[in-house]
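quick one before i forget lol
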Amino acid sequence: MRSAARKKSALATAATAATALLALAAPLLASTPASAASLATWDKVAQCEASGNWQIINPTGQYFGGLQISMSTWRAYGGTQYADRADHATKQQQILIGEKILAGQGQGAWPNCGPKYNLGADHANPYPDAPTYPAPSSLANGTLVKSPNGPDVRVMIAGAGVPVAGSDVAPDKYDLGKVVVIDPNAFNGLPSAPPAGTVVHDQAGGANRYVIIDGAALPISASDWTEDGYNLRADYGLPTAWLQAAAQRTVSTGRVVMDQTGNDPSRYVVVNGAALHISGAEWTANGYNQQALMGVPTDWLASAATRQVPNGSIVQEVSGADSTVYVMAGGVAVPLTNVDFIGFGYDKRPLLGTPGQWLASAAAKAAPANGTMVKSLNDPTVWEIVNGKKRGMAGSEFGAGKRSFDDVVGVGSAFIAKFPTA
């Protein structure tokens, strides 16, 4: 879209741009644009602009799709309700946004191709039977939405579309008679979790409050509610089933966190649900200071900081200065040989970076926690560690309602040999 619209956009002041965006809000929902063109005319413009290729990108990387619409114009006229940029949208969606541009700027928006095909003089609706949909961003929090192509319902919360289960409808008092139908691509593109830092509660009721971090719902204690300032944030009701599942999730591995109060200067990185302390030297040396820092509830952080990285997690120093790979077993970081790393299938698991000082401390621990089960690669015996000693386990100890072989951690034979037999 090699247009006057681009020049106008480059020269416009911030105030003018803001006014223009506000003025666009009403036309976005209009069923018939003030100016329009037939499908045949739009095809001619696309042939002129992009050789009829609706998924093309201009060699400059600035203009997209069959109508060569810039990113700023695509956003300003509501194109992101369909796709992030024009060439990712369908032909119909690009034309519908083209109609809005034509209504707002006239055929001069395509100075080389618009006048050539009398784009502004056509006045025909290219899709007379096409439904028009509201943009999700225009809908209030708590609005129920669905796609015209399926029965699934979501509720709009802070820009996300949180899934509503059938079991949620009655207890959460959702009125399915007020569901708003939105564009299917916009519906499918909605994030399913509210943004990090959103405070939520069960829509069905109850006093519990949570904060969403990476799709996980972290409980906010009664003392944290005011001390951490969560009581000053908007509090949204979420579908019961989704919230219950989110409360079982863990914060993403690699997420850097701190106490929400700001009173504790310590910083932590989350690894498989455990919060590992980051030393002052490692904060900058390992690049943690370059990552987004998220405040989390004080009590949740205190609990996460005492958790062990789960058994079987494969870890390595995040800086890469130490190439040794370890497996976690009862809080101990056990070094692995290449044979054990491959033999136990650990090469198929994600390798998790951890702060060096934390890893050195975990590797120096004398023995795994009581009850940890380990075995070496070439020995069928499963050993349970109890008070720094090892006990050979019988096969009868495993099975339904008993211990599980899935909880046994594969380690090197040298590690097992360090412990006397109980």
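fyi The first strand starts at residue 63 and ends at 64.
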